[in-house]
Amino acid sequence: MLSRVRVWLNRTYAENVFFMDQLRRNPSDRAVEIHATHGDPDSPVLAAADTADLEPEGLSPAAYVEYALDQCARRGIDVFVPRLHQAAIVAHRAEFAAAGTALLAPTPEAVAVFEDKATAYEAVRSVGVPVPPWFRVRTADELLAAVEELEAAGHRACFKPAAGAGGVGFRVITRAPFSLAALAGFPGPHVQLDLVVEALRRAGEPVNWLVMPRLEQPEVSVDCLTGPDNRLRLAVGRTKNGRRRGFTLDARWLEPARLIAEGFGLHHLSNIQFRMLGDRPVLLDVNTRPAGGLHQLSLCGVNAPWAAVRLALGEDPGVIEPPFLGQDYTVVSGPRSLLPTGLPRQREAEIPLPAVPVQAASAVEALPL
């Protein structure tokens, strides 16, 4: 009889409750126990886990590595899926291996390349993957110059932090003056150029932004599973065009994703996103972690989280071809149980963190971090 597998997800997105569900419903019918940690006691990930701890706040990356090593040793973790402080953690892969824990994460070199979007664009362009025109800007004058050059080429300019995830800080530049029309309906991503320039000049310190054209839909998000031998085991594109979602195996999207995943050591699970610049796909972003929507591949008969755990344990699942492509769909939210109220939101780092028992409590809509 195969032994149980103990998997840890550290401070991760609420959507990964579905990642956890798929691990438990694995086709190998193998027992899986899940440990989760988070800084928010109301994270549904904590309630979905078999055991859970509140993470100490304010740890440096180096101190977090020590905390993670202690968690792995105390909890008997077989596979660790790190999101928070991923770069620091993968740099200590040998220490985790010595503790009996496999990291479900890419190489340190891959994480370093894709932590910064400008560095990533330069790198992938060198292997033949199309990227949009882009500018790294740090000052108001650099922003103005970048926007003017993009607009002269017929593009609508947008910007986002060079380092970041989940669309945080993304804005579309407009030259329309601020008016009451901007206050009607829900807040949107558009921001007036003059307001941004004024804020930059007033701040008196540089930013680190990527300025580029506003790319068009469809957006195709390719979920990849790559082995430590740099060979792709799985690649499926998830398409998004407004509310409508679907799947694709079109080489226009999968081939550049393969070049990136295999060429840069994106071992285990990664997510590579493309959008349209005119009539051609270009790279949008590379995530060195499982996508929040990875579970949607279950509509194609694929359990990607379990295949990744097997690969991390040294059990090569081989090349995985989806048996079918699911029909188009949309995404809706739903309730998930939370832990009882009254838990402290933060514990001091030096106080041992007891396991939080998993109990059903009030229901809440699953939201991102």
Write a structural description.
This protein has 369 residues and is α/β, with parallel strands linked by helices. The protein has helices spanning 17-24, 44-48, 61-75, 86-90, 93-98, 108-115, 117-125, 140-152, 193-203, 251-263, 304-312; strands spanning 5-9, 32-38, 51-54, 79-81, 102-103, 135-137, 157-161, 171-174, 190-192, 209-213, 216-226, 232-241, 244-248, 268-277, 280-287, 335-337, 356-357, 363-365. The strands form 4 sheets. The protein has a 6-stranded mixed beta sheet with strand order 5-4-1-2-3-17. The protein has a 5-stranded mixed beta sheet with strand order 6-10-7-8-9. Helix 1 (17-24) packs across helix 11 (304-312). Mean pLDDT is 91; it is low at 344-369.
Please count the helical segments.
Answer: 11
Mean pLDDT metric: 91
Multimer state: single chain
DSSP helix fraction: 25-40%
Radius of gyration: 21 Å
Beta-strand residue fraction: 25-35%
Q: How far apart are the termini?
A: 38 Å
Order of helices and strands: EHEHEHEHHEHHEHEEEHEEEEHEEHEEE
**Low-pLDDT residue intervals, each spanning 5 or more residues:** 344-369
- Report the principal-axis shape: globular
Structural class: alpha/beta
The strands making up the biggest β-sheet line up spatially as 5-4-1-2-3-17
State the major sheet.
6 strands, mixed
The total strand number stands at 18
